[in-house]
Automatic annotation (TrEMBL):
Presence of the UniProt keyword Oxidoreductase in the record: yes
Pathway, per record: Cofactor biosynthesis; adenosylcobalamin biosynthesis
Single annotated GO MF: oxidoreductase activity
High-level lineage: Bacteria, Bacillati, Actinomycetota, Actinomycetes, Mycobacteriales
Organism: Mycobacterium pinniadriaticum
Keyword Oxidoreductase: yes
Name of this protein: Cobalt-precorrin-6A reductase
Top EC class for this record: oxidoreductase
Amino acid sequence: MRILLLGGTGEARALATRLHPDYDIVSSLAGRVPDPALPVGPVRIGGFGGVTGLRQWLGDNEIGAVVDATHPFAATMTAHAAQVCAEIDLPHLVLSRPAWDPAGAVLVDSDVEAAHVVADQHYSRVFLTTGRSGVRPFADSDAWFLIRVVTPPDADMLPVHHEVLLSRGPYGYDDEHTLLRDNRIDVLVTKNSGGLLTEAKLRAAADLGVAVVMIDRPPLPAGVDVVGTVEEAAAWVAGLEQ
Ligand code: NAP
């Protein structure tokens, strides 16, 4: 049985390493990042062309099961996979890493709402870690932004006062503490991505008394099977009828 592994995350790469070559897997990346970290084993890159394209692709490639290990905020891909797998009765699992505890943070539902909080609270030095697509809502802000992204935002997305820091995690506590302190950050804006690779910024912010505005996760589609760890996902694959 061939298994489609929807990826773009460290967990997806770790799962590919666990499964390849014992299982017939193909990993899929969206193709957003020019030089992506590639999982082991076969990889395809690029969108499927919506629900219709995904349905066609799954049939053409004789896929017998789908593990969705995309980022918790990749809601469109997750919705498409859940819909198509339900329609064609394909075994389907979502690997969603546990969320961070939002205690102490201002919890919001969107990057637009986060931008309102930053404006309303008159924060002046913002550490923005919501990714390239999360920059635009802050474009009209007068605050200064340290914008950490993997791929540079377009010029028209950027607020007037900013510095772009191109980098890719993981990030350790000491470096995050230094970054927040040296840049005199007064608020951290983050998605509730969860996971250990980027959570040090939350501990550093707490220790420095930096406020946190956290964007809550989009809900998962109703009725999907969900696990939180690579180990559980590997066990689910092992339990499939091969
Ligand atoms: P999204 O909004 O849910 O997806 C938008 C479209 O991108 C999908 O409809 C699909 O295009 C395509 N796509 C997304 N993930 C894909 C995959 N793994 N393989 C093939 N096509 C994919 O997703 P996104 O938030 O833009 O994230 C894109 C990728 O970056 C994901 O793989 C995700 O794991 C990774 N990532 C996202 C974030 C984040 O904060 N959103 C952070 C880190 C990594 P079609 O409709 O044409 O099939």
